[in-house]
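#help-structures
NK: newbie question, is this the right format to request a structure? protein is tRNA pseudouridine synthase A
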Amino acid sequence: MRYFIEFSYNGSAYFGYQIQPNQISVQEELEKALSTILRKPIKTTGAGRTDTGVHAKKMFAHFEIDENVDDNLVHKLNSFLSENIAIKKIFEVPADLHARFDATYRTYEYYISLEKNPFSKDSSWQYWRQKPLDINLMNEACKILFEYDDFTSFAKLHTDNKTNICKIYKAEWEQLGNQLKFTISADRFLRNMVRAIVGTMVEVGSGKIAPNDLRLIIEDKFRNSAGVSAPAQGLFLVDVGYDF
């Protein structure tokens, strides 16, 4: 039987979601907890992978087991796991439903703090030392993203991506008091794509480049044409969509 897990995590303590040698990851912690409680080796497949320091408010993974799971598994996992990972629910799904490949969209939020704030230093880009940002120019640049589907210029170099084609459904900046929030939703994302887009948008907002320069950057299909990646701690995966 196949089960989906819905969970969230603070990524500050982890070297990303996906298991990797000699580094602590969210997936490793999750599999260790499942294997200990269920008393058999459990492997999980996540809806995607987040980079070092990136957070998730809503993430999914699936695992398989040849027996029904205990109704109290959510509580047991939350008792076993560190305070950085919270299990929301676990539910059975069709045996062919895949946490990664059957996701129809993913949504991220990125937060920029416009004032020095010790309470958001691990959850936003502390931007208060730098030039003011023009959110109207940044939203003007957002509209250009919808004109394209090849985002090679925002992709991390030397990855195993078979394609850099993505369909963006939403891209928008909002001001929330002394914070800016960027929301972006697409059918898929390339590694480092959101942080590269945010870094480039900040160049637009600070007047370093014009909104229309974004077209040239995208059409170059060259990572060095885009801005520097925004810091990881401001990025949150907030939703993953499925047809269930």
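mod (FA): yep, format's fine, and the tokens are attached above. The chain has two domains: 2-93, 104-242.
NK: thank you!
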